[in-house]
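To assess whether ligand presence alters the predicted conformation, the chain was also submitted together with heme C. Input:
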Amino acid sequence: MKHLVTLALLASLSLSASAGPEEDRAAFVQFFEKRFPSVAVEEHINGAYALDEDKRKQWEALESGFPPYEDAVFDGEALWDDGPYADCFGGSAAVKQSYPMWDEQQGVVTLELALNNCREANGEEALNYADYDMVALSAYIAFESRGQAINVDVPNDQAMAAYEEGKAFYYQRRGQLNFACSSCHLEMAGNKLRSERLSAALGHVTHWPTYRAKWDEVGPLHKRFMECNDQVKAKAFDLQSVEYRNLEYFLTYMSNGLPLNGPTTRK
Ligand code: HEC
C-alpha cells in the first residue's frame, strides 16, 4: 500500500506538466516528508549523511579541523579581492542564493557563467569551467553565502520553458541501465546502492563546489551530474552545457528556501 502511494505521488510529480514550479516544489518536498518522516526537510542539505548515522560520524570527523576545501576558499578570496568581481556582484560575495538566474540573452545563468560574464565585461578572458581558479572563486562565494536561503525565480514563459527542459531531463530514463535521475534520488532515495546510501534529490544543490575524496579535489555540481550520467552509461554533457544549466535551474528551484551550506565534503 505504501508503495502504491509512493508510485501515485511519483506519477503526479513527473506527469504534471501544467503545474507551475511552486506546485512542483510543494509536491517534491511532500514526497520526502512522507518518505522520511523522521528527517527534517532542512537536514537533506547534508545528502546521504542525513540518512545514514554511521557515515555521518565519519563525515563529521572530516569536516572538523582543517576541512579539505579550506585552501580553495582562501585562494578564492584572494582572486575575488584582486579581480573585478565585487563591482559586478554589488559589493558582496554572499550571492549564491540567487543563482541560477534567468537572462533573456543567455538563458539560465549559473554562478560560474556570471563569473565569466564579469571577467569578459572587464576585458579578462573567460576561465575554463574546470579551472582551479573557477572552482576556488565559487568555493569562496559558497562560503560567504552560507546560511542564505535559496531564492531562485522563474520570471516568464521563456524561463519556464528552460525549467521544463530541466525537469524533463530529471525524469527521463537514459543510458544502458535505463535509469532517470529520479529513479535513484526519488524512488530509491535512502536505499543502498552497493556501498553507497542514495541521497534525496532535495538539497542536492546547496553545497557546491564540494571536495570529494574520490576526485581528490574540490569540484562543481556539473561534474557530479557527469558522473551520475556516466554511472548509468548515459551520455554526459559538458560543464555548463545548456542541458546541465537547465537541470540545475529545475533542481535549484526544488530546493528553494533551503539554506546554503557549501563548500562541504563528500566521499
Ligand atoms: C544509478 C543511480 C543514480 C542515478 C541514475 C543518478 N545518481 Fe546521482 N548519485 C548516485 C550515487 C550513488 C551518489 C552518491 C551517494 C549520494 O549522495 O546519493 C549520487 C550523488 C549525487 C549528487 C551529490 C549528492 C550530494 O549530497 O552531494 C547529486 C547532486 C546527484 N547525484 C545528482 C544526480 C542527477 C542530476 C542525476 C541525473 C542526471 C543523477 N544523480 C542520477 C546515484 C545515481
